């Protein structure tokens, strides 16, 4: 299975999208610049199209934003996450923990996030990791990536693969089968049918949710 990168668009779609009352351009501005767009008076402003590009993976951070993002401290990251006004940090932190099971991270980077002492620190640590490890090239989030992100919202799915690393690969192979519809279900074993049914549920959740 191709693991997702833990970059800004993946973090945003998993942890921020649908969890803040701020407009997308303001949420992105808070995360990247530390303030709402209306308060940006130093020449660096994130416009609507740029915010959409950054959160979808279709646009890389412009140089001045990347330069500023490398200077964000843990304390500053926490302040920015708090400024998003999350109502349920426990659930969001759990979703971020789930995300860690399907992203490509070093052992040290994963440990840095997982050993956070509280929910806000965990979310802000994931944000810092994402923002300081930008993709070397544009990585647009397609339907496949969005399905994997939707997967993180279902605790039952995470429980199924947590004890078996190989389960992760087979589960997303099932998603591919469900998407293509190429399998003849009458010829498949019951266990695989159950897995494909779960994969289709993920597909339906992703397609029916406009927040992802």
How does this structure look, described?
The protein contains 12 helices and 2 strands, in the order βααααααβαααααα. 36% of the residues are buried. About 4% of the residues have low confidence.
Question: What would the keywords be for this entry?
Answer:
212 residues; mainly alpha; two-stranded parallel ribbon; 2% strand; globular
Mean pLDDT score:
80
Structural class estimated from helices and strands = mainly alpha
Work out the number of β strands.
2
Report how far the terminal alpha carbons are from each other.
21 Å
Q: Would you summarize the structure shown here?
A:
This protein is mainly alpha-helical. Helices cover 61% and strands 2% of the residues.
Please describe the topology of this protein.
Layout: E1 4-5, H1 8-16, H2 24-33, H3 48-56, H4 63-69, H5 74-83, H6 89-99, E2 103-104, H7 107-114, H8 119-132, H9 143-151, H10 155-162, H11 165-180, H12 190-208
Parallel strand pairs: 1-2
